[in-house]
Amino acid sequence: MSAAHTAPITRDDLQARLQALADSLNAASAPARRSGFRVSVIGGAALVVLAFFLGRRRGRLTRTFVELRRY
Asked: Please, what's the b/e burial string for 6-40 (b: 16 or more CB within 10 A of its CB; e: otherwise)?
């Protein structure tokens, strides 16, 4: 802080400065937030598909085969 600036800092000054900072952060993070959402949706769908196929494989391996014969 320079010695030439002797005016007291008011609540309005702080609020204006913090609001400007928050606005710039929100503008910068919006594209990252959208791409993060897209990646999480794709990752969730991939996990569901993977669980489906692994469960299907396990079901085929442990399934009992019963053969009925009529005489």
From this structure: eeeeeeeeeeeeeeeeeeeeeeeeeeeeeeeeeee
- Helix, coil or strand: residue 21: helix
Domain residue limits, the chain: 11-60
Q: What is the largest CA-CA distance in the chain?
A: 109
State whether residue 1 is helix, strand or coil.
coil
pLDDT in the model for residue 4 = 65
pTM above 0.85, yes or no: no
Among all chains, which residue has been given the structure tokens 């019963």?
66
